[in-house]
Specification:
By secondary structure, the chain is of the alpha/beta class. The chain is built from 12 helices and 11 strands. The protein has a 6-stranded mixed beta sheet with strand order 6-7-8-9-11-10. It has a 5-stranded parallel beta sheet with strand order 2-1-3-4-5. A hairpin with a 3-residue loop joins strand 10 and strand 11.
C-alpha cells in the first residue's frame, strides 16, 4: 500500500487538487489529505486547488484556504491528483504537469493512472475511502474524519449505492465515533436543497420524458432555461437521482447544455444497466450505477445515441431473467 508520507519525503512544496466541478468526495479527499500532510509535515507548504467548490462543504476545515483562481506558482515538489486523472483537473493541471513528482489516487473505472506513482482501486466506493486506508486510523482526528465521512456519504449515496461494502459501513461507523454531528452533515450536504435548486428540479421533473417502455427517463435543460434561473452546475445536483427514484425506471438521464450543440450528461441506473459502460462509449466514465459524459449534437441526437446501448443492456438483462426462470 502507498505510504503517503514516504511519497512526500523531503518535499517543501506540496500541491493537491481534484476534478473540475468538484463533488463531495473530491472536496472531502482534497481537504482531508491537506490536513493530514500539514499535521505530519509541519515544515512543508501544503496548498489545495479546486474549481469553486459548493458552499455546502464550507464546514470542512481548510475550505476557506482552497485556491480557486489557479495563479502562477513555483513548481511543486509533489503534486497529488485525487478522484480524477490529470485530464479533468482544469486549471490545476498545469501544476501537476510541472511538479517534480506526481501522485494519482482514484477509484474510477477506466483510470490507468496519470502520476509517477498511482494508487487506483475501482472496487472501492470513494476516494475518501481509499484515503481512510492510506492515512490509517492512527492518522485520523475529528476534522479529518469529518472530511472523509462527507466524501464517503456523497459517493455512496449515504451508503445506498452498490459500491457500498461491509468495509465501507465499518469505516463510516469508526468515523462518526469522532463525535461530529453526522445527521446534520447528511441533511445539509446531501439532501437539503436551496429554493433555486428546488425550482429547477421541479422544472426538470415536470418536463421529463419516459421512453423504452417506461424503463428509461430523460430530462434536459437548455441554456435558455439555465440563464432564466441564473443557474450554475452546482444548482443541478440531485436531479438525476430524483429521476432514478421514479418507480419502474431502470435508467435515468439528466442533461444540461454547456455550449452550442453540447450537453453534460449524467446517468443513474439499476443493476440491469452498467452506466459506466454506456458513458465510456461517448468518452466518459464513472461507476456501474452512476456515470457521466459530454456529448455533442442536438438533444434528440444525444438521446437516440444513448438509447441504443441502454436498450441493448436492458434487453440482455430481460433475456437472462427469462432463461433463469
Amino acid at each position: 500500500m502507498m505510504d503517503l508520507l514516504e511519497e512526500c519525503r523531503g518535499a517543501e512544496r506540496i500541491g493537491i487538487s481534484g476534478h473540475i466541478r468538484p463533488d463531495g468526495d473530491c472536496v472531502g479527499a482534497v481537504l482531508a489529505l491537506k490536513m493530514y500532510l500539514q499535521k505530519c509535515l509541519p515544515k512543508a507548504l501544503v496548498k489545495a486547488f479546486l474549481e469553486e467548490p459548493a458552499d455546502i462543504f464550507r464546514e470542512i476545515k481548510g475550505f476557506e484556504e482552497i485556491v480557486t483562481d489557479f495563479p502562477e506558482e513555483e513548481p511543486f515538489d509533489v503534486f497529488f491528483a485525487l478522484d480524477t486523472d490529470a485530464g479533468r483537473m482544469g486549471g490545476a493541471e498545469k501544476y501537476f504537469r510541472a511538479a517534480a513528482k506526481t501522485v494519482n489516487i482514484d477509484h474510477h473505472l477506466r483510470q490507468t493512472g496519470s502520476g509517477d506513482v498511482n494508487h487506483l482501486d475501482p472496487a472501492v466506493g470513494s476516494t475518501c475511502e481509499l484515503l481512510y486506508d492510506l492515512i490509517g486510523e492512527d492518522g485520523l482526528d475529528r476534522d479529518i474524519a469529518k472530511a472523509l465521512y462527507i466524501g464517503i456519504i456523497h459517493d455512496t449515496g449515504v451508503f445506498q449505492y452498490s459500491c457500498t461494502t461491509p468495509a465501507t459501513m465499518e469505516k463510516g461507523a469508526k468515523l462518526i465515533g469522532y463525535g461530529f454531528d453526522f445527521p446534520r452533515l447528511i441533511q445539509e450536504t446531501f439532501f437539503q436543497k436551496t429554493y433555486l435548486q428546488a425550482q429547477i428540479m421541479g422544472r426538470a421533473l415536470m418536463e421529463s420524458i419516459r421512453f423504452l417502455d417506461g424503463r428509461c427517463i430523460v430530462s434536459a435543460l437548455d441554456r435558455k432555461i439555465l440563464d432564466f434561473y441564473h443557474a450554475a452546475p452546482k444548482d443541478l445536483e440531485g436531479i438525476v437521482n430524483q429521476l432514478r427514484n421514479i418507480k419502474g425506471v431502470e435508467c435515468a438521464i439528466f442533461m444540461y447544455q454547456t455550449g452550442v450543440m453540447e450537453y453534460k450528461v449524467s446517468l443513474r441506473t439499476s443493476e440491469r444497466v452498467n452506466a459506466a459502460q454506456v458513458a465510456a462509449i461517448f468518452g466518459g466514465g464513472g461507476h456501474a450505477r452512476a456515470a457521466g459524459c459530454t456529448m455533442e449534437g442536438t438533444f434528440h441526437d444525444c438521446i437516440n445515441n444513448l438509447a441504443r446501448p441502454i436498450e441493448e443492456q436492458l434487453n440482455a438483462a430481460r433475456d437472462r431473467a427469462r432463461r433463469d426462470e
